[in-house]
Amino acid sequence: MTLEDLYRQHRMRLVRLAILLVDDPATAEDVVQEAFTGLHRNWGGLRDGAAAVGYLRTAVVNGSRSVLRRRKTAREYQPPHLTTARSAESLAMLTAEHQAVVSALGQLPPRQREVLVLRYYGGLSEQEIAESTGISRGTVKSTASRALDALQKVLKG
């Protein structure tokens, strides 16, 4: 049996398997193609045709798992918080008091700044802030309290 024969006989079955695992026909096709590419690279080391089918099935399952892991990682990725300088135009439009508060917020630690911004500018509840930032509700309360104290000190000093 040649690689071409295996491709003709088993490709669609393997694609259906991959579709059930990754839930996307195009990705399933890619996974199966990668499996056949791997088989081609290892063609000389195979015992028989039955071993080739087993190799392909295992490669499709492992390839599907890799796709799902990459999807999960991509969904969970949060880019690092980048602080950007405010433009001169936006600062000119702010009142002097507002400018002082924005400047003072920039001096707070990131978590404190996030909690205050979400609470007072975003209008979120403590529970919503906890869910958004991945911290407990109690931590939101204590962080907000400390942040307000620190903000007050910065504004007075």
TrEMBL record:
GO terms for biological process: DNA-templated transcription initiation. Keywords: DNA-binding, Sigma factor, Transcription, Transcription regulation. It comes from the Bacteria. GO terms for molecular function: DNA binding; sigma factor activity. Pfam families: Sigma70_r2, Sigma70_r4_2. InterPro entries: RNA_pol_sigma-70-like (IPR039425), RNA_pol_sigma-70_dom (IPR014284), RNA_pol_sigma-E_actinobac (IPR014325), RNA_pol_sigma70 (IPR000943), RNA_pol_sigma70_r2 (IPR007627), RNA_pol_sigma70_r4_t2 (IPR013249), RNA_pol_sigma_r2 (IPR013325), RNA_pol_sigma_r3/r4-like (IPR013324). Residues 99-151 form the RNA polymerase sigma factor 70 region 4 type domain. Residues 6-72 form the RNA polymerase sigma-70 region domain. NCBIfam families: SigE-fam_strep, sigma70-ECF. PANTHER family: ECF RNA POLYMERASE SIGMA FACTOR SIGM (PTHR43133:SF50), RNA POLYMERASE ECF-TYPE SIGMA FACTO (PTHR43133). Belongs to the sigma-70 factor family. ECF subfamily. This is RNA polymerase sigma-70 factor (Sigma-E family). It comes from Crossiella cryophila.
